[in-house]
């Protein structure tokens, strides 16, 4: 064999080996077996006992993940060595159920409410009925810190009412908004109470402006915000026609700072709209024009209650699935959202909106559909699906929050729960909160 022939053969061999190596590396990377490109399951907590619905709420506080359902509140350890094991559980007494919880757990304290539901409509509620008992739990060990009673109008649970929240050192408890709406001003009933978060001692009480009741409450850094229903009942006894307002109270004293209509252009009421507080600093609301949240607007207000330009669920950016909390995240004056669109199947864009103007700051078209996002510091994390034809979660992407530049791409080696209620980040791990019979929490780490 001549030297030229030998050199050609060696070159061919090198090229073939390089191609084989590249294909092998791609296969290993794509399936999560290439170091530096992979996400692997660190641990998986126990499965839900029942498959009849979502968790009432999930939280990650310090080194504990907490899941609340109608039948129990359970804490799972996240610190080294705990690996998602159950470390405590609170079960409500007798036949009562967990019927409410605070959106935020602060200072290692979680607020929940429990009671026994009565299907009747008699007013006031029969003794011992209704979602009337508020309980503070120490997140670290599940210890009961204090309880307090709240007023309820009937024994029926309030569906969709967020009447608890915590922030800093205060706990907020709103009385049944149905009770306040039907009360006359001379009755002297109050609808909002602030308590010391660790002890339950009263800090202040706030009366509602006019004939208003609290539908939702959320604690901000300097103010407490409340979605109000105002106007009382109509001649048929229904309160669905009560107009929705937004109010802010001084966090230290409970003084009313301002209250404004939810929508300055046309009245909104719970008979035709769905409202939720997405963020307090800045104040952002999700306002659906239908109960399914197919259409609607993200409303934003400045600290003095002046409305800012809204962001529509549906627009040139695509369609934001507002009913799913894991589709949006708010950090500072930016809202990040996954906006879906159809192009040879379902796909998504990652869009950053400037909340001061309502305009897009940047957007990135993703190669495949996305399942969820989270925002932390200067990074946006997106869980990507395998293809437009499969909803299996296969990839993790990280983007710069300021510019939208892709910073990292990794592939999951192990299955990610498809039914999720939220995703969290803890100690460089991704924590997926499941529901509907799947694992309560699953942790994945970079490899």
List the helices and strands and how they pair.
Blueprint: H1 3-30, E1 38-44, E2 57-61, E3 64-68, E4 73-77, E5 86-90, E6 97-101, E7 109-116, E8 130-138, E9 144-149, E10 164-167, E11 170-174, H2 177-182, E12 192-196, E13 202-206, E14 212-219, E15 223-230, E16 243-250, E17 256-261, E18 274-280, E19 283-288, E20 296-301, E21 307-312, E22 314-315, E23 318-320, E24 328-331, E25 334-342, E26 346-354, E27 360-365, E28 370-376, E29 379-387, E30 390-400, E31 406-412, E32 420-426, E33 429-434, E34 441-446
Parallel strand pairs: 1-31
Antiparallel strand pairs: 1-34, 2-3, 3-4, 4-5, 6-7, 7-8, 8-9, 10-11, 11-12, 12-13, 14-15, 15-16, 16-17, 18-19, 19-20, 20-21, 22-23, 23-25, 24-25, 25-26, 26-27, 28-29, 29-30, 30-31, 32-33, 33-34
How would you describe what is shown here?
It is built from two helices and 34 strands. With 447 residues, it is mostly beta strands. The chain is globular, with a radius of gyration of 25 Å.
Q: What is this entry, summarized?
A:
With 447 residues, the chain is mainly β.
Instruction: Note the overall shape.
Output: globular
Q: Any low-confidence stretches, pLDDT <50, length ≥5? A: 24-30, 183-189, 234-239
| Percent in helix | under 10%
Biggest sheet descriptor: 8 strands, mixed
Oligomer: single chain
Strand content: over 45%
Number of strands: 34
- The end-to-end span amounts to 47 Å
Strand order of the largest sheet: 28-29-30-31-1-34-33-32
What structural class do the secondary elements suggest?
Answer: mainly beta
Taking Cα atoms only, what radius of gyration do you get, to the nearest Å?
25 Å
Helix count equals: 2
Overall mean pLDDT stands at 85
């Amino acid at each position: 064999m001549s030297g030229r022939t030998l050199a050609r053969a060696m070159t061919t061999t090198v090229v073939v080996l390089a191609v084989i190596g590249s294909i092998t590396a791609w296969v290993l990377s794509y399936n999560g077996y290439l170091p530096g490109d992979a996400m692997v399951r660190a641990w998986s907590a126990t499965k839900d006992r029942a498959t009849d619905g979502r968790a009432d709420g999930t939280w990650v506080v310090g080194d504990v993940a907490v899941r609340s359902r109608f039948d129990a509140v359970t804490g799972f350890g996240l610190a080294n060595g705990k690996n998602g094991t159950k470390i405590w559980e609170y079960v409500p007494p007798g036949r009562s159920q967990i019927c409410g919880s605070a959106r935020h757990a602060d200072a290692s304290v979680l607020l929940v409410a429990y009671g026994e539901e009565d299907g009747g409509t008699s007013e006031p509620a029969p003794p011992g009925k209704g979602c009337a008992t508020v309980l503070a739990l120490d997140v670290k060990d599940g210890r009961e810190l204090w309880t307090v009673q709240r007023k309820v109008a009937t024994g029926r649970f309030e569906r969709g009412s967020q009447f608890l929240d915590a922030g800093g050192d205060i706990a907020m408890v709103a009385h049944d908004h149905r009770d306040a709406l039907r009360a006359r001003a001379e009755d002297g009933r109050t609808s909002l109470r602030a308590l010391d978060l660790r002890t339950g001692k009263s800090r202040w009480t706030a009366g509602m402006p006019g004939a208003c009741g609290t539908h939702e409450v959320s604690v901000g850094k300097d103010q407490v915000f409340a979605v109000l229903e105002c106007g009382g009942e109509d001649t048929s006894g229904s309160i669905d026609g009560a107009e929705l307002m937004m109010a802010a109270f001084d966090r230290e004293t409970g003084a009313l700072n301002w209250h404004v209509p939810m929508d300055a252009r046309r009245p909104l009421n719970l008979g035709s709209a769905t409202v939720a507080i997405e963020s307090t600093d800045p104040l952002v609301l999700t306002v659906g024009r239908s109960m399914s949240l197919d259409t609607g607007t993200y409303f934003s207000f400045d600290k003095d209650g002046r409305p800012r330009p809204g962001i529509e669920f549906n627009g040139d950016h695509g369609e934001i699935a507002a009913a799913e909390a894991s589709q949006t995240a708010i950090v500072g004056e930016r809202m990040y959202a996954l906006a879906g669109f159809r192009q040879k199947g379902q796909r998504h864009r990652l869009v950053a909106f400037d909340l001061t103007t309502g305009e897009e700051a940047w957007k990135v078209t993703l190669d495949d559909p996305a399942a969820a996002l989270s925002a932390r510091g200067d990074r946006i994390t997106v869980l990507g699906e395998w293809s437009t034809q499969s909803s299996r979660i296969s990839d993790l992407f990280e983007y710069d929050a300021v510019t939208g530049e892709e910073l990292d791409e990794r592939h999951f080696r192990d299955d990610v729960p498809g039914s999720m209620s939220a995703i969290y980040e803890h100690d460089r791990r991704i924590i997926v909160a499941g529901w509907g019979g799947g694992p309560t929490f699953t942790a994945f780490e970079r490899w």
